[in-house]
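Q: Here's a chain of 297 amino acids. Please give me its 3D structure as tokens.
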Amino acid sequence: MKIKKVLYFLIYLFLLASIFINYQVFSSHVIQNKILSDLKNPSGMQLKFDTINALLPSIPNVTITAMPLDVYRVNYLLNEGRLSETDNFISKAIEINPHVRIGDYLKAKVLIYQNEFTDALPFAKSAFEGWPKNLDHYNTYLDVLEKVRDTTSLINAYNYLPSKLKANTNYFQRFYESFNKVKLSFLVTEYEDQRSISPKELTGHWERVYNFPKQIIRDTTLHYIFKSKNLVESNSGDEYLFTITKDTFNFFFKSKPSKPILSFPVFYSDSLETLIFRNVPLEGGKFQDQFYRRKAH
């Protein structure tokens, strides 16, 4: 009889433990979904660290992908600028799962927040190489490579990916965007020898160019043909009148030569043989610097 009572008691305890654990797991999934939704919020994170820290249960302490929940805690601390509190949760995350370099990922995130990109680089690289299929590790490594302007490592990172991940558009698109961003960061936009230019000097065919330290890229689809000292043809074939007054280039409709339709600063660089248009108005109230060279023969 006593054995039965003990057995029933043990079963009762087991059921209570099961109910408690299942409740904790359910509660964890609910708050995790809430956090994930908040992290993807286009307006930025709305939840606060103290809120999510109180809601996240101690069991389980990982997500269904074995990522420590302390990763969420660190992200919210960073969002609130509470850097001094991150070390404890980073250490806990490493203890929970030391196999996927989650600690290196979090250390990189903290250093990125402090704009210490060179110091963040080895941690970001270690996290990526330790768990390349984790898109957060991949994106963080590429964030750092963008800041240090390392195109070689960008290419190596993409080549490091398994074939299955290379076929994933998320990975390729991010690589493509990062590579172009770094490439454009080397674009020559400042010309120390820029000077005034007269309408007479413009006569001829000019193509849009992108000047890099050791390379010139021509966009032959965008050009101007200056036919005389006051007549210009655009790449669409339309003709306009123009003037240059006090380093300002003015476009006019031929039918309305009294009021300019566009005006922006214009200069010329002798060293790079480049025509420089500054702050050219674009759609949506945006402005852009544009550069042109004479058509190559």
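Q: Can you summarize the key feature?
A: The CA atoms of residues 52 and 275 lie 56 Å apart.
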